[in-house]
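Hello,

Our lab assistant flagged a job as stuck in the queue for most of the afternoon. It eventually completed. Since we weren't sure the result was trustworthy after the delay, we are filing this so someone can double-check. Below is the sequence as submitted and the structure that was eventually returned. Let us know if re-running is recommended.
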Amino acid sequence: MANESRPCPCDIGDRFDYGGRGQEVQVGHIKAYVCKPSASTDKAVIVIHDIFGWQLPNTRYIADMLTTNGYTAICPDFFVGQEAWKPSNDWASFNDWVKTRDAGKIDKEVDVVLKYLKDQCGAKRIGVIGFCWGGAAVQHLMLKNPHLKTGVSIYGVISRFEDKHSLLHPTFFIFGEKDDIIPLEQVTLLEQKLKQNCKVDYEVKIYPGQTHGFVHRKREDINPQDKPYIEEGRKDMINWLNKYL
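-- returned structure --
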């Protein structure tokens, strides 16, 4: 549960025991996990990690899932070498920790990644997805980066960019009905603001009974009643990317 001592429980659910099909590479001044499909493609997706960083197996699992759907997927270290959050850390220090990792200040890294995808991977159509901290980063990029085609913000922390809604590109927002970090009132307000200000295609979808992290942080066999919503969230993400890339 979210409370003063635990303000961002992104580790709800299981950590996958998963090694990844891709490889780690150096991209400019940052490291990144890259996975490529067997057939050549000009479509790529940047995957933005949550507070647990670019090496979390769950996030790499999603990157590989994108690859099996025909995309080059890259998950860069947007903390640029700074330590990711650990579940064993003192949650009382979380707010100070996250202030040093601003989801709205990743533009330099995104530019480097875009150049890599275009020059090294032949990418011409590039989208972005992100989870929690990374979901907030997606909203930031959809507001300002002209080189991306579309984005999927998955339980992105709305409060980071709550006053900005003039999106440049089609954006899909995924939320869980029982998310303790992102109350439904915030989601309703986001929808209202998008309706008033947004001139591109967007969708806001709430998944019944789901908690924070359900798309990438839960193992499907833990809670059988959650499995359809986990699968639906992932399928919706892929369908949105397919539509706009």
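-- support follow-up --
The delay was a queue issue, not a problem with the job. The result is valid. The helical segments are 57-68, 94-99, 107-121, 133-144, 184-197, 227-244. The first strand starts at residue 23 and ends at 27.
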